[in-house]
Amino acid sequence: MTDYVLPDLPYDYSALEPYIAGEIMELHHGKHHATYVKGINTTVEQLAEMRDKAEYAPLNAYEKNLAFHLGGHVNHSVFWPNMSPDGGDKPTGELAQVLDEYFGGFDRFRAHFEANALSVQGSGWSVLTWDVVAQRPFIIQHFDHQGNVPICMVPLLMLDMWEHAYYLQYKNDKATFVKQWWNIVNWADVQQRFDRARTQTPGLIL
Ligand code: MN
Number of folded domains in the chain? Predict the structure, then answer.
C-alpha cells in the first residue's frame, strides 16, 4: 500500500488556457508532481528498510528526500485547486478583510505577493500562509519545496515559481506569468483553506 497518491486535477489540462498552456499542465501534473509522489513513497519504504536492518548510514540522504518529495507533493496538491478556469477577480468577505487589515488592501497584498514571487532565487514558491500561532497571515518564500518554511504556517495560496511552471510558454518573462496567473486564482478555494486554518486551536504548536 502506498501512503501518497497523485490527486486528479479538478479540471482538464487545457482548462487554464490561455494563462497556462495545456502542455505545461500535463507535464507539470503528470510528470513533475507524479515524480514527487513516487519519491515520497520510495522514501517511506527506504526508511522502514533502514530500521529493519538497523543500518543508518543513508539516514541523512533519506531525510533530505523526505522533506523534498513530501514538500513537492503537498505544495502541488494545494496549487492545483488554488487555480480554476472560473477564477480571477479578488477575494471577498472575511478573507478580503484580513488582507485589508494585514497588507493594507488587496492591491498592496498583490504587489507584495508578486514581488515575493519574482524575487525567489532559483526554484521556489510564493505562498500566502496562515500562522496558527499568532493567528495572522504572512507572505513567505519556499526555497525549492521545503526550505525557509516556518513550521507554524498553513498554506492558503501557493504559486509555483519553478521554471517548469511557466518556461515552455513564458520563457524568461516570469513577470508576465505572475500577472496572468491572477486571472485563474480560485479565491473560493483560498477562502475555504482560510476557514479551515482558523479552526486550528490556538496552542496547537505554542
Ligand atoms: Mn512544480
Answer: 2
Using the mean position of ligand 1's atoms as its centre, give its distance from the Cα of residue 114 in Å: 17
pTM, rounded to two decimals: 0.97
Checking if the pLDDT of 1 tops 70, the result is no
Task: Tell how far the Cα of 194 is from the centroid of ligand 1, in angstroms.
Answer: 22
Q: How confident is residue 113, by pLDDT bands cut at 50, 70 and 90? A: very high
For residue 73, what is the domain's CATH number? 1.10.287.990
- Ligand 1 being an ion, which residues bring their Cβ within 5 A of it? 160, 162
Specify whether 74 is located in the same domain as 97: no
Backbone phi, psi, residue 90, to 5°: -145, 160
Q: Say if residue 102 is in the same domain as residue 197.
A: yes
Residue 62 pLDDT greater than 80, yes or no: yes
From ligand 1's centre to the CA of 132, what distance in Å? 26
* Amino acid letter, 81: P
Ligand 1 centroid to 145 CA: how many Å? 9
Task: Give yes or no: residues 174 and 103 share one domain.
Answer: yes
Within-domain flag for 15? no
Same domain (yes/no): 142, 105: yes
Q: Can you give the pLDDT at residue 21?
A: 98
Instruction: Count the alpha carbons within 13 Å of 84 in the hemisphere toward its beta carbon.
Output: 13
Q: What are phi and psi of 158, to 5 degrees?
A: -125, 135
Assigned C-alpha cell, 113:
505577493
- Per the structure, the complete domain to which residue 48 belongs is given by 22-79
Sheet holding 153-160, edge to edge: 136-143, 124-131, 153-160
